[in-house]
């Protein structure tokens, strides 16, 4: 199952970004939104020695500063271990260091969840539903981040959604979109990503309803499990555990920002 998780991670990244292979690392770039961290990063795939890893990180940080890049994001592949000493090393260089969890649940948990009559969740196969999800995402991101960036991000999402590989599921209350989540299927596995509920509608079970509907749809297509990624210190992690998700892996993420 972990192999398929890693494959689906790659497929998701390649839906948005181009990838360049180098010895020990893979570089992902999305020229459409070069300042979007999740689309522009370097993944370290193998580590000959810890000294090599530390020297590589220092080299990439120098390059980012010399080229006046807005950010530098580095990830360690989930197969690579990391120590507290290494976290301390990266932190001292000015990186924000986070642990990302991979959480997996069998789709049978959806059978134990009662439908939520407060809302309806629609699959974004149609232009109307897709656009409603994009409007909702833009509204959500405009509060959290720069509004201009929120629009550019939403436009990039639209271009990918139109290919049909990644599909948004949109939650409606009284015909108004209040939340959404991306659905990405590969073999027996479905990934949920970009999961959010507008602040005014949180804590009403709407997020659980999105997950329930996505799980039921995935089951109909022969899938057996759903997975997600979340930061180790994120509050929603507790909700995921209550829904049957369990940690199956983790990786280290390091972000340096110019400002």
UniProtKB/TrEMBL annotation:
N-acetyltransferase domain span: 132-259
Keyword Acyltransferase: yes
Pfam families: Acetyltransf_1
Name of the gene this protein is made from: cgeE
GO MF term (any one): acyltransferase activity, transferring groups other than amino-acyl groups
Phylogenetic lineage: Bacteria, Bacillati, Bacillota, Bacilli, Bacillales
Gene3D superfamilies, per database record: 3.40.630.30
The entry's keywords: Acyltransferase, Transferase
The protein's name: Protein CgeE
Matching SUPFAM superfamilies: Acyl-CoA N-acyltransferases (Nat)
């Amino acid at each position: 199952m972990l192999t398929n998780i890693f494959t689906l991670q790659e497929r998701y990244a390649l839906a948005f970004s181009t990838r360049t292979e180098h010895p020990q690392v893979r570089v992902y770039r999305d020229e459409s939104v070069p300042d979007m961290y999740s689309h522009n990063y370097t993944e370290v795939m193998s580590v000959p020695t810890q000294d090599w890893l530390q020297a590589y990180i220092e080299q990439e940080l120098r390059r980012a500063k010399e080229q006046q890049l807005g950010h530098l994001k580095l990830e360690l592949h989930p197969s690579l271990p990391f120590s507290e000493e290494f976290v301390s090393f990266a932190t001292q260089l000015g990186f924000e260091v986070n642990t990302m969890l991979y959480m997996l649940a069998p789709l049978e948990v959806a059978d134990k969840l009662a439908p939520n009559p407060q809302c309806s969740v629609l699959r974004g196969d149609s232009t109307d539903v897709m656009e409603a999800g994009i409007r909702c995402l833009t509204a959500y991101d405009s509060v959290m981040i720069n509004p201009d960036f929120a629009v550019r991000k939403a436009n990039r999402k639209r271009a990918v959604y139109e290919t049909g590989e990644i599909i948004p599921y949109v939650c409606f209350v009284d015909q108004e979109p209040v939340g959404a989540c991306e659905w990405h299927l590969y073999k027996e596995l479905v990934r949920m990503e970009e999961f959010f509920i507008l602040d005014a509608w949180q804590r009403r079970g709407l997020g659980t309803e999105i997950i329930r509907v996505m799980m039921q749809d995935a089951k109909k297509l022969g899938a057996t499990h759903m997975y997600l990624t979340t930061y180790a210190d994120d509050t929603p992690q507790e909700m995921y555990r209550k829904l049957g998700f369990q940690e199956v892996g983790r990786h280290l993420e390091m972000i340096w920002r110019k400002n």
